[in-house]
Structure of AraC family transcriptional regulator:
Amino acid sequence: MREGRLADTTDHIRRLQRGLLPPVIPEAFAGDTRLVGRWRNEPFEYELPPLKDHVLAAKYSGEGMASVKIGRETTSAPAAAGTITLAPRGHAGFWRADGVVEVSNIFLGHKRLLACADQIGNGREPELLDRVNFGDPKLFAIMALINDEVSSGDGIAYLFIEQLLDLVCLQLLRAHTATAMPMASGPRRGLSERQVKRVTTYMRENFAEDIQLQELADLVNLSRFHFCRAFRLATGQTPYGWLTRQRIAQAKELLKNPTLRIIDVAVIVGYETQSSFAAIFRKVVGLTPSEFRRRLRG
């Protein structure tokens, strides 16, 4: 289904709860993923349209029955602590719950799930299953950890949550798809050729700027940790190492121009100071920029 025909997730969860806005945390995570802290869900009946995100709920307490009717098929189960509910992206259905429950949510961006599927090397777009109060202790435990980190306010919580979200995607692919997702044999793949081209083109076009690792990871919808590993598997270099070599290669060309001062060259290729540029240049080339220029002159 086309993205433009998919409904806004937060808006329809609010309508489902009769106007109560879910407590979505302000930070957005890789792949347009959003998190909702623990909150109380009242009983409801709602015709849920196809949403743009995969909606996951982890249940911490509650009672009653819940169900979803899709076409002629109805799935129902009693509410129980430690279970999960999953409404996949693009699935319309009539949802009902007759009891009060306490949950936390993940509004998982489809781009993030696709990026994870690409990393395990199966080349197939995943089709997730609808789940109602389903027992998956591993997925619940991961979601509970995410909720703890959301509440902690710890300085490194954001990075920790990014890694936990990768685990959520892996568990969804392993245990909640319509057909088994075959894992690639041998070492895990790095970035695809298309992804490498996209990232390296961006670096070439912007190497004079202060490029942040998150910028590069966002280009391929991966966490920073996952991106660094995938880039190195694909190229044999770290993103920083690849960018540095591009900058130094350009600097060597610019140093052939005698009208440019060394500080000018440094700024053009993305270094704020001449000293930092000279240190990196010497590390890569084995000469300082001044020594390199003198050798060019013979």
